[in-house]
Amino acid sequence: MYEGAVQDLIDELGRLPGVGPKSAQRIAFHILVADEEDVTRLAQAIDKVKATVRFCITCGNVAEAEQCRICSDPRRDPTAVCVVEEPKDVVAIERTREFRGRYHVLGGAISPIEGIGPDDLRITELLSRLADGSVGEVIIATDPNLEGRPRPPTSAASSRQWGCGSAVSRRDSPSEATSNTPTRSPSVALSKEGECCMPEVRRSVPEELDPDLQTLGEETALEALAFLTVVREVAKGAVPDSAVPVITLALSQILVTGSRLGAINDVVPAQRFEPDLGSDEDVEELRLSLAELFTGIDDYAEVIDPLTTTELSRSQLSGDIAEICAALMHGLRHHADGNMTEALWWWQFSYLATWGARAASALRAMQSILGHTRLDADEETVAEAQFDALHR
Ligand SMILES: [Zn+2]
Known about the structure:
Elements: H1 4-14, H2 21-33, H3 36-52, E1 54-55, E2 62-63, E3 80-84, H4 87-96, E4 102-105, H5 123-130, E5 137-140, H6 156-159, H7 211-235, H8 243-263, H9 284-293, E6 299-303, E7 312-316, H10 317-336, H11 340-375, H12 379-390
Parallel strand pairs: 3-4, 3-5
Antiparallel strand pairs: 1-2, 6-7
Bound molecules: zinc ion.
């Protein structure tokens, strides 16, 4: 298709997970026109990660020393171990800030199709960690499906768990029928009197949903649809001059919806596993359209967690909005399947774990843009306004 080096780059990028031929082409041409400095930094980062990053001898997570940051942190509870498939699952669970124990990274999932059996994973290492009896609780947070389907894009998907026998929610549940079922949020991992058991599959209990929850679910679905419609229209360029106020309004409204989910008890579905929905709709195109629309105002500074740190990071409005859309769409798919409890569970958990914070910080940035646009004026305009005011 293209000549030599460009095509080589496209081919290499296309081999990365989640990068299709179109994206590979887009990234390659981005690199082609990017500043020399930026490209060098990218190349160096790739080199450095291969040269300096290794795997923790205890848990198998990525580490820059013999032990990873979590294993070497004395404040982390050594008696609780959460078993995950990949280092990225550790990141996803860490982002929820609810688990204070340690991890064990298996390095993949058992997949008969790909010929990956128990011997290929770090299971022997796990058993030897458990051998001395100092670990009181093991939480299995691997993908419940035998061959691991693609995960939804938000962190909550990776923190679903089979849980231990004792890992039962102590919070109030919406109905009797579901009160014995573990919640699927990592908060239950904090249960202490844990005797450990291996994963077992429970039969689902027929669900009866409280009428108030049913109503809340329907209203949430409508709000989610409204948000998606507004974002899609804005991304298409329907209101180029009022994109900022329109998105500000949409974010404010979806945050009201989220706050309602945050005000009710944990929604606990009867089934232990989230039903498989297959892969979610890709929001990458949407994100790119928004990024283009917000050129120049997309990047902003964000406080990572205002309660625990003053540390700042960078965020993009386009990324935030696309992530919120992805989370809302995932819940809408359960809703479309007639599975209201699953939809509510997902919307609530993902609001608490991911999209609530994204929406709140994006709203703060949007408000700031709106303020600057409306209030910042050049001196001449200000002088004219003063003159008018004085001589009217
Ligand atoms: Zn470690």
